[in-house]
Amino acid sequence: xxxxxxxxxxxxxxxxxxxxxxxxxxxxxxxxxxxxxxxxxxxxxxxxxxxxxxxxxxxxxxxxxxxxxxxxxxxxxxxxxxxxxxxxxxxxxxxxxxxxxxxxxxxxxxxxxxxxxxxxxxxxxxxxxxx
Length: 131
Prior knowledge:
By secondary structure, this protein is mainly alpha-helical. It folds into two domains: about 10-90, no CATH class; about 95-130. It is about 80% helix and about 0% strand. About 10% of the residues are buried. This is Transposase. It comes from Caloranaerobacter azorensis.
């Protein structure tokens, strides 16, 4: 004997709240990826957003206006930035060589500073041990 008039209103409310929380999670992940602004290491894609937010692509496509539209716009903005970055970073061989030499000098200076700090640290530890 089944209940002919089941009370499912609480179940419906719960599912709506759960969907709302998932939508907020998706938008939060999208905002985070936009703030990181790192198209190489943190690309904005539907798959990445689904993975980070813990939702399926089916869920995203269930809310086209609320989720898919802002995601597509963010993807478009990021791809435009990638084009600008790739156009700016055309180096000649000479400029590459100069950049490499500059970075080598910086590494040597940092290694020298690191060695000095390690030495200072050892002296301070020795003084501390004497007390």
